[in-house]
Specification:
Length: 303
Amino acid sequence: MNILHIIRDLSPETGGPVSALHGLSAKQKQLGHKVCIVSTDYGLNRELLQQEGDIILSRTLKTWRFAPKLKDILKRKIAWCDIVHIHTIWEYPTLAAVQLARKIQKPFLLRTCGMLEEWSLSQSRMKKNIYLTLFAKTLFNPPCLLHFTTQAELEKSIIPGNPDYVVIQNGISQQALDNNPQFPFLNSFPELSGKEIVLFLGRIHPKKRPDIAIIAFANVASQFPNAILVFAGPYAVKYREYLTTLAQDYKIRERIKFTGMLKGNILYGAYRAASIFILPSMQENFGIAVAEANLEDILRLFI
């Protein structure tokens, strides 16, 4: 089968949707399908990249991920594929792909990535209401098949119209399932050896509430002098500065560590090295980090 995936960007800083797509497309290739991903260059710092069938385009509008050459490429790739799988809702690549899939009469799935849940819709509510007023029929009318990753996401979502849907969970990579040692992580951050690690792993973003993690840690830090709060994930510099100032205010600046984004053995070694995994997130449709943390024998705190 020829499978086409379309997503707003492939930046690691985008978080879960990109990670899930990489895992899904890799497994589909392993099963013998021909897979292509069309995206933009947002967050990749290059104007054009073509690798392993992925097509990454230059974009001109940061927030809407507009790419002037996108429609021409999508016309060719949608004609080539047997099915179109579109990921996320609000940006231009999604709208262009849905419009062309309808025109060419190709079946398509639309993975909502939690974006129809009440909390998500409450963020920039006016803009999203206007967008749905203009494009809800285009996005959700048949033959659209909405892809939810959990039953809870489906139940919490506000769905315009009455489209068909399917619930298919995200997968866990084979590397995450392996018996990963902790030493690649500790070798990369030797100052953490011998520490009781409280691990916050994911995108360092206000939605994930790392500020709550800092405040909670500060309330018990004196009882656990060997503990350290580790933030493992990509972050905006200004937001990290805010969190650092917050930690200083709570007198635990020396008890927190930002590692930046982790990959491969270092990433999975972080789970193994941790004593506690914490995720005080406001909303998760399917937390890949939560699923990966459940593979390890560590205490998990999900708020």
